[in-house]
Predict the 3D structure of the following.
Amino acid sequence: MTIWSPRFETGHAHLDAEHRAFFDQLNRLQDAIESGAGREKIVEMITILQQYSLGHFAREEDHMRKVHCPAIDANCSAHRSFSAKLDGWLELLSTSGSPVTLLRDIHRESSAWIESHILKIDCQLRGCRTIGHAHQP
Ligand SMILES: [Fe+2]
């Protein structure tokens, strides 16, 4: 179970709301895995997570560029590698029998990634502002 706390706040209310939505999706995925939901349902949930993450990553990267956040390059490459992970898991699930150990690994790894990513990279948005910030040449 991934629990939201103020330590995850980036200072940007909309991005924080989207991060909370990630936590909710991951918690629902965990419930589905533990309650023995079928492979189709799990694949559907991971596909929704993948689609949601693509939109969120693009919005977050746009905002980081706008406020000249120093973490922008690290953020973009972390987003690409997480998206590739999700693609790989979906491909694996399409060929494996979706054993519960694999599903738990996917959930655990995704949750750990999102928590550490927000804390180490997204939270660098704190203190970055558009107003009064000099434009880069
Ligand atoms: Fe990010």
About this structure: The mean pLDDT is 93.
